[in-house]
Model the fold of this input.
Amino acid sequence: MHNFNYHLAADVQDAVAKLSKSEDGKIISGGMTLLPTLKNRLSAPSDLIDLGNIDALRGVVVSKTEVTIKGMTCHADVAANADLQRVLPALANLAGIIGDPAVRHRGTIGGSVANADPAADYPAAVVGLDGVVETNQRRINGDDFFISLFETALEPNEVITAVHFKVPDAAHYMKFRHPASGYAVVGVMVARYGKKVRVAVTGAGPNVFRVPAMEAALEQNFAPEAIANVAVDADDLLGDMHCSAEYRAHMVGVYARRAVAAIVG
Amino acid sequence: MINVTMTVNGREMTGEVEARTLLVQFLRDHLRLTGTHVGCDTTQCGCCIVHVDGKAMKSCTMLAVQAQGKAITTIEGLAAKDGTLHPMQQAFRDNHALQCGYCTPGMVMMGIDIARRLPDADEATIRHQLEGNICRCTGYQGIVEAIKSASAVLNGKQEGGSHA
Ligand SMILES: Cc1cc2nc3c(=O)[nH]c(=O)nc-3n(C[C@H](O)[C@H](O)[C@H](O)COP(=O)(O)OP(=O)(O)OC[C@H]3O[C@@H](n4cnc5c(N)ncnc54)[C@H](O)[C@@H]3O)c2cc1C
Ligand code: FES
Ligand code: FES
Done:
């Protein structure tokens, strides 16, 4: 790992100021993605600005209609939150199957969403649960946040302070977990809001995407068989050493049906 | 160089580190606490797990400066002063939960974390909880049994270990 200047930010404003002043600075939250990247010398920032001491950036706020997870909340705290387990168990369960327990003790929602790994879990929640990403500057709709592979709508010196989710009538996240890394080979979040349905897929493509044909079919008939014949085009999906794009396309259907089945019981 | 101070196994420790010094390097190279191992560079194997303020974390993926002011427990901090093993260590011994021993410090530290968080964990849960700890020798059977039996002791559901 190349060396860098280390700063502990006092608050978000301080972090943004330090970030703007640095030559090529980066935020460090849980470090679960950033430090392995630095160890491999895939990146060599001049400065790291640590959000670790900003207690105001930790916590989960649950109301009947909205869930807010502050940026520095670690996955373990999201998974273990009793209010969240009651109001939106799909989100608590999603956080509880990210990586492993030690990763969940450090990795944060802000870091995960900012990083936009195509196989990360949270993006499926941000898009599937009609989320809003809040930064020090603005609020960005979940549908507009993820641009491409590791690319988001964030500006260079923008810091994620919280992510908001709309509480659905029912939702379920079904993940085909890569047996070695834990990341999603395919992950599907299905959520029902009155007559509207959202289907968000992570792991399968270069970034999270919705499946409008499945949403329309489920809005007519919320049952697994309603989407049995909805094909997902493999052309835009990822093929790699783990599996082909065609396999992923097939698995999107399988996992979407399982998620619906879990909701209708 | 940066000055760091943290409590390690109950004692206050101070050292000069570079910003890039990992917590595991500080423990092993500066403090000579070589019980904490490094088995990978991808944050996947769990050999390096220590407790930071009571929670299991991978010390290979944390900067020493990030441990400033925190309380660290390593494998060396578990046994009593007279050498009596911690119930989790004893259970590993009783259940043949190690062969080469390379993964063991991380397994023991994670085992204690599991026992604290999930006192009623069954075998399947323990196996899932070990997803971030890799053992290339044992096949995990003894490790899972050790964690299950030590958890019962630590959570007051069973008297002492079988060794007595
Ligand atoms: C072994 C292992 C297994 C994993 N398995 C999974 C898995 O199954 N599913 C999954 O989704 N993830 C998985 N992860 C990734 C994990 O969830 C990370 O915690 C997450 O991707 C990054 O969060 P972090 O807080 O560690 O961010 P960091 O590593 O600190 O930062 C990541 C990036 O985001 C930027 N950043 C961080 N915080 C902010 C912020 N508040 N605002 C703006 N930019 C910010 C940083 O500058 C950096 O570029 C795994 C990681 C490991 C090591
Ligand atoms: S050395 Fe830390 S996880 Fe492998
Ligand atoms: S005992 Fe050898 S790696 Fe686990």
